[in-house]
What does this fold into?
Amino acid sequence: MEKGRGISSEDSGSKPQQGTGDHQFGGNSCPTGKIQVLGDIFQFTLDVSEFSPEDVIITSSNNLLEVHAEKLGEDGSVTNTFSHRCTLPSDVDPISVTMSMESSGLLTVRAHRVCFLFTTNTMEDVAPPGSVIVADWHRCRDSKDFFSKILHKKRRKTFGLLESPVMPPHVAVDTVHYKIFISGKSGVGKTALAARLAGLNVPSVHYETTGIETTVVYWPVKLRESGRVLFFRLQLWDCGENATRRFDHLLPSCKEQVDAVLFLFSFTDRTSFDDLSNQIAKWTGPPVGRVVKLVVGTKFDLFMHCDVAERDVRDFKETWRLPLLRVGGEVSDGLGDVAPFLNCLAEQLWHQDCVTAGSAGHHPQQETVALL
It folds into this structure.
């Protein structure tokens, strides 16, 4: 256990919870903790304005953060106490945890999330994160000219089926095209995920997709081995669950020439998690061919309503050996909340193409020009 403002902890893999610990007060109102998942940042804020900075102690052990405050009177007696516990999610890098306290008394704890989770026995045809592309390239200075083509006034541009980013004539950038199908039960957030990745407004009210909706996402990446820049054109296919049941021709259309499937479940809906095996079974076999398969857990930020335990997620990964990503939290106008997701999707797609072409071998970072 460590104390103080320099926090570190060990990953216990326990389920994230909000307000799961003790709250003790000397007659004052209870400060409310707030947990947010902002892209690749896990943030925990707490109002401790009733205490001075020297009254607050932070401890951490096995991914459990505990905030304890104690105010003393002039006679040395305790006049007010408070304690709050928060368990870090298993996809948070414990080494990256930092803390700050504003003059207003707002305590903020931040940590970087490792959004791409693997088991120790990951399948050989899955590329480790960062092995093929530069994962944080969107933060680098040399990426500005490319990302500016998918942004307008710091917001994402909307591209139609026949539209694409326009680069200067002297800059040659190849575009690779992929078809992505989003699979999952009704209400897990398929339409919301497509909107989030494309920079569109996320629907505030759930509605059933009546047929097939397609969304185009452009995303520039830099290959790690050669430094070559590519535009990934991702066409996201979203088909309503009831529509696929009513119309037999929809699912075959979605499967035709598909490059990747995103299997969605909601952390707030246990039945959607239990249905994953059925979802994956529909996309297994020779008719489908080699496709990238990623599992996506949505509504990860709604910790108080979580219906899927962390141990169940670990068991699933050990059984299916598929990469699992988590999304949730507020949607920002920038790139930080979608970059980890789009980067790892692009990485797996490019790696799969290299494996299919027989050019990757044991070095998945090698690219092949023939694929273009």
